[in-house]
Amino acid sequence: MSSILWSDLVPNALQLLSPTAWIVMLTVAASTVIFYRQRAEVAKHINRIPGPPALPLLGNSLQWLVDRDEMFSTINGARLLYGRRQGFNRVWAGLKPYILISKATAAERILSSSKNIEKGRDYDLLKPWIGTGLLTSHAAKWHQRRKMLTPTFHFKILANFVEVMNKQSYVLVRQLEKQLNNTEGFDCTIYATLTSLDIICETAMGYPIHALEKSDSEYVKAHEKISEIILERLQKFWLRSDFIFRFTKAYTEHEHCLKILHDFAYSMIQKRREMYRQRKQSMLPETGSADNAPHSEEAHGQRKQLAFLDLLLELSEDGQLLSDADIREEVDTFILGGHDTTATALAWMLYLLGTDQTVQERVFLEIDGIMGGDRERHPTMAELSEMRYLECCIKESLRLFPSIPILSRTLTTGVDIEGHHIPSGTNAVIMLYQLHRDPQYFPNPEKFYPDRFLPENSTNRHPYSYIPFSAGPRNCIGQKFGALEEKAVISAVVRNYRIESVHRREDLILYGDLVMRTKGGLKIRIQRRI
C-alpha cells in the first residue's frame, strides 16, 4: 500500500516543480557537494598538522571561551602544547582553519610572499572603524595606497617631526611631577597612551588635542571601549556574525564609539582643508604664514610636519583620487596604528627600565654624554640617532613584549612548510610572543638583555626571528616614525627621573587585547634626578 502511494505521489510532486525550481535545487545540491569536497580536501591537509582535538562544526572554539585574564595564556598554551618540533600547529575556529606559527623559517614562508599579503579575516572586525585603509585593505588597493603614502614617511620628513615629539615629551615630564610623592606607584600606560595620542595627532594632522592635559577625553574613552568590543567579538565566535551582533547591547555602544571616532577624524580633515583652501586663495607660499596658520609648526613654515594629511588633501582635490571617506579611513588607520602600538611600546620600555637599574643608568649616561650634560634643551634628530644603546633597549623591549602580539594572513595561495601543505583559505597566524623567545636565536630568552641587539651579537640572526613591525612586503609603514617617537619620549623621561617598577615581571598577568596589555597596568614609581 505504502509503496503504491509513494510511486503515485513522488512523480506527481516532481511534475509540480517549475524549471526555475529545478535549477535552484540542482544548483544548491551541486554547491553543497562542491563545498564538502573542498572542505574535505582542506581538512585532509590541515588535520595532518599537530593540534588539539576538534569538535564537529565548533572546532576548538569552546577552548577560547575563557576570561580575559586567561585568553592570552590559553592561546600561547595551544601553540606550545602541539607541534613543538615543526614550530607550528593547527586549530579550528568553527569550520575555519588556523595555523599558529612561532618558528622563523615558517614565518618567512608566509610573510615574505608577494602573493599572500591579504590580512587575516579577524582584521575585518576593524573595518567599521578604519574602513579599508592601509592596514585592512585587499591586495590591489593596498598596493595603490602603499605607493601613494610611502613618500610621507621619508627620513627627511620624519626629521621635521622631532620638534613636536620633543614638545609633547616635556609635557609628559611636567605631568609626571604629580607622581613624585606616589609611593604606591602609578600605571605608566595611561601617560604613555595620552602622550602618544598627542604626538600622532599633532604631527600627522596638525592639531594638538592636549589629551595628556585633558585626560578625561571622549575620544580616548571611545577608543578604549571599541577596542574592548572588538576583542569580545574575536573571543566569542558567534559575535563575529554582523547579523547576531546587531541584536546585542554591545552593538549600540559600538555605533556610539564609531560616531565619536569618525566625527573626530572628519573635523580634523575639514579644519585642515579650510587652511589649505585659504592658502590657495591668498596665493601664499605652501608653508603658509603665522596669520593664516595658528599652530606653531605652520607658523615656522614647517609644512612637512603635516605631510601625511596634506598629501591626502592634495590628492583629494576635486575628488580625483581620494574622497573624504577615503581620507577618513587613512586618518583613522594612521591614528590607530601610531597611537595604541607606540603607547604600548613606551609603557613596556619604561617598566622594563624600572626592573633593571644597571641598564637604566647606562641609558642615562649615554643620553647625558650625547647631550653634553645639558638637561634643559631638546635633542636633535642627529642626537637621537646617536642613542644606540637606548635603541637596543627599545628593540629588546619589543622582543619581549611586542605591541602587536600576533600577525595574521589569509592565504590566497597554498604554501608548503616543513613537509606540510597549508591550503589557500587558511588563516596563518604568526605568534610574535613565542617567535621572539626562540632560544636558537635568543639564548636565555626571558632575560631583559639589550646587549643582544648590539651589532656584534645580531649580525647573523635570522631576519624573521625578530619582527615586531612585521616583515616582507606588507611590513609596518610607520616603524621609523614609531622608533623615533620612542627615543624622544624615553630619553626625556630618563633624563629627568629615576624609574622603579612596582611589580616583578613574573607577577604580571598578560591578557588578550588588540595590543599587549597587563591586568592592572604597568605600575612604576619615579624620583627626580638631581
From TrEMBL:
CDD domains: CYP4. The keyword Oxidoreductase applies. The keyword NADP does not apply. Keywords: Endoplasmic reticulum, Heme, Iron, Membrane, Metal-binding, Microsome, Monooxygenase, Oxidoreductase. GO terms for cellular component: endoplasmic reticulum membrane. GO terms for molecular function: heme binding; iron ion binding; monooxygenase activity; oxidoreductase activity, acting on paired donors, with incorporation or reduction of molecular oxygen. Gene3D superfamilies: Cytochrome P450. Pfam families: p450. Heme binds at residue 476. Its main location: endoplasmic reticulum. May be involved in the metabolism of insect hormones and in the breakdown of synthetic insecticides. This is Cytochrome P450. It comes from Anopheles arabiensis (Mosquito).
